[in-house]
Amino acid sequence: MASKTTKRANPGYRCSECGWTTAKWVGRCGECQAWGTVTETGADASSGRTPASTVATPAVPIGEVDASQARFHTTGVSELDRVLGGGLVPGAVVLMAGEPGIGKSTLLLDVAAKVARHRRPEGSTRSVLYVTGEESAAQVRLRADRIGAVADTLFLAAETDLGRALGQIEKADPDLLIVDSVQTLQSQSVDGTAGGVTQVREVAASLINEAKSRNMTTVLVGHVTKDGSIAGPRLLEHLVDVVCQFEGERHSRLRLVRAVKNRYGPTDEVGCFDLGDGGIVSLEDPSGLFLSGTANPVEGTCVTVTLEGRRPLVAEVQSLLTPSGQGSPRRTVSGLDTARINMILAVLQRRAGFPLNQDDCYVATVGGVRLTEPASDLAAALAIASAKLNAVVPKGLIAFGELGLAGEVRPVPGIGRRIREAARLGFRRAVVPKSPEPLGELPEGVRVAEVRTLTEALETMKAWVA
């Protein structure tokens, strides 16, 4: 009698970085391309099935779900509310990532104090728990005194052990939890050092479970790697509800917060902040930081309007040309894309007849702002042409539009919105690309020149100079 053969369970392999699975071991993940992150997870999923368990909360019709539990609560910081879509949602988990020293802790400590002071309609206050693993409680208190972030219902705990941090949550039962940072907490139930892939996954999963079960808003501070990506497993970004990126130059006071993922609101909004000695404050109108403010205009400057999300920002582009004393001229760029500036120089030389191959070219923005939108191409071209012609761009003129290799000026989104923002700041002349759609109602007294090519833009600038 033939004996029955038992099918052996094949081992499965999983990437600890992104969760990608495979039947065979490989040294490099096929999804995130990380080395050494694929480990054996035991039997393959096909060898058995997960049995059904008892349902604690049965499914209900979607029309009977109470949506009031997911309403926004203001953070007290208008620019952060703009990025989040209206404020913080109970039970939501927000990941705030950014480089060291950029102002994450300062902003969140200010938010914690303002939430703790905010009263509910019935008159009670909200409790906030701030768990710090990077500083002592005394160090955080010193910062709170400096920025005025002391509140009666703001509780502070310095913990690096996940179990003790969960105990603090159990005792305080806060409405808002801030963890600074998720890479500093360590769980004793799993192996690995704090900040490692395994530890970050366990810590994040435990905190997210607490947030959802308690309907507690949670903000996690995350570190970034040297290339700007969030440290830890990629799975962390999938687990949280909102991912915010904190950006800014170390030598500039301007800070930008972008939502790269938001389950409750838009991802094209940008919040602007001013980081100073007294803390970090919202900037409702940051355009003034990006203008030189010189009394008399000089050659080589042109103002443009860029869109950061849905917000128009007025910025100034400056250019300086000097005769090159070397065989190959120098190209130095700050605040713009070097590749696009090199392309603009080539278009100016080939399509507009500007001899620039013997000049050193320096192009920069004012105030440390970084212009990544192609709409700043036309302003950069006019600034370089102004420096070469030694002619001043007329005061009160703005220019924006994408420049093509054939010398054409391509349309950009939000032309009317950009013109209205510039007019609000006192600009009365605009060189813009020809748009197939109507610009809408424009402010009174604003002269708009719609151009199709770079040559037309240069001729318009020369005519207005005369």
From TrEMBL:
Pfam families in UniProt: AAA_25, ChlI, Zn_ribbon_LapB
Motif RadA KNRFG motif positions after renumbering to this chain: 261-265
Region entry Lon-protease-like, spans: 360-466
Residues the record lists as binding ATP: 98-105
Keyword vocabulary terms for this entry: ATP-binding, DNA damage, DNA repair, DNA-binding, Hydrolase, Metal-binding, Nucleotide-binding, Stress response, Zinc, Zinc-finger
The keyword Nucleotide-binding is assigned to this record: yes
Listed CDD domains: RadA_SMS_N
SUPFAM superfamilies assigned to the protein according to its UniProt record, in alphabetical order: P-loop containing nucleoside triphosphate hydrolases, Ribosomal protein S5 domain 2-like
Domain RecA family profile: from-to ranges: 69-224
InterPro entries: AAA+_ATPase, DNA_repair_RadA, P-loop_NTPase, RecA_ATP-bd, Ribosomal_Su5_D2-typ_SF, Ribsml_uS5_D2-typ_fold_subgr, Rubredoxin_2
Known function: Plays a role in repairing double-strand DNA breaks, probably involving stabilizing or processing branched DNA or blocked replication forks.
PANTHER family referenced in this protein's UniProt entry, alphabetically: DNA REPAIR PROTEIN RADA (PTHR32472), DNA REPAIR PROTEIN RADA-LIKE PROTEIN (PTHR32472:SF10)
Family label: Belongs to the RecA family. RadA subfamily.
Notes on the domains: The middle region has homology to RecA with ATPase motifs including the RadA KNRFG motif, while the C-terminus is homologous to Lon protease.
Protein name: DNA repair protein RadA
Source organism per UniProt: Citricoccus nitrophenolicus
